[in-house]
Design goal:
Layout (H helix, E strand, L loop, with lengths): L1 H12 L3 E6 L5 H13 L3 E6 L14 H7 L4 H7 L2 H21 L5 E6 L1 H12 L7 E5 L7 H4 L5 E4 L9 H19 L10 E6 L4 H13 L3 E6 L3 H11 L6 E4 L3 H8 L14 H5 L3 E3 L6 E5 L12 E5 L2 E5 L2 H16 L5 E6 L18 H14 L5 E5 L6 H15 L3
Parallel strand pairs: 1-2, 1-3, 3-4, 4-5, 6-7, 6-8, 8-9, 9-13, 13-14
Antiparallel strand pairs: 10-12, 11-12
Amino acid sequence: MKNKENKDELMTANKKSILLIATLDTKGAETEYIKKIIERMAQNVIVADDGVLDEPQLKADISRHEIASAAGSSISALASQRDEGKASEVMAKGLTKIARDLYEDGKIDGVISIGGSFGTTTASTVLKALPVGFPKVMVSTMASRDVRPYVGTKDITMIYSVTDIFGLNRISKKILANAAAAVAGMASVDISEGAKIPLVGISLTGEQFIAAKMIKKILESKGYEVVNFHAVGSGGKGLEELVKSGEIDGGVIDLAVQEVYSNLFDPGGMFDSGPDRLEAAGEVGIPHVIAPGCADFISFPAGQIPPKFKGHKAHMHNPSLVVVKTERNEVLKLAETISEKINKGKGPRAVVIPTEGFSRYDKLDSPAGFYDPETRKEFVAELKKRLDPSVRYVAVKAHINDPKFADTITEVFLELGGTK
């Protein structure tokens, strides 16, 4: 009996609280089912109702009225407007404020939501406002499509509902139970961390993998922790956000500029990470080194090359991706843009140029036929000409994946940080 009491006390002490978000006017039974599964795993559940129109089918811990009020509105006002888009925007705003407060006060350990298009749009806005690493699960009818609008740069686990979220059945119950168990399991994981050491962010594509691997090894031997980001739109954006939040505090090494190209010549495209790419490190003032990896080409989804690039040399990177060689006007525009971005930074900054090539395509023996030393030289000259004197400039007679380049860029980075 005593052992059982001790076990119950331990379970109570380790109990986690999960925020469960749903539109309770349409998904009461499903919400109650998830709630019971999580509670069965010895965890608390806080139910939030972000529905607007009909009466809720289940009592919420955080009512729709509280959520609307937190956004400076009311349910009656939203219902009378009959504007689903406006209602989603208001409820997302109010629930984001409430969820952030709960998180900052240590009152929730994870979030799960279920929804169709309205519920997914509303709840995913809330989930994206919570930090990376905090458990976030979204069961959605929209999860079999492009989920970028719902995930953004955050580690949101999207689970496709397969069936419509419309009543319980032998299929939906299993999917909802799996999702409930997933968020409960995530919240229960405790990662004990050692002493905090400086964290360095490195952006790269597959073209700089060899260089990044060598740089990472050197930095770790010097007492840094390293996190790599695949520079394909969301990767670079995630890097910038983590710098601004202070999570990445040791500095940034950008080995790829592919996302800047996309913002310039294919805005909104697959690799576009927004107009502020390459700027966060300079804003915060941490060491920042940029290398022009992939300055020799721009990438597009196969079959979607814009008309202005139709006459350029192209190469199939894989069945879903084509790389297109950039010409003089594009590389000069890139040089201008990079210089503007790094010039306005306030921390220690440097540009390191591998003069013998920016990617594996930028080689004499490359089957893509992109080798073009003259255009490369024009890019380098334009960039160097435009750099502010406060930005250190280093040219290395090496290809971007040569050990000599990795050694040099790491050396420069360590000198900027004063840790050489």
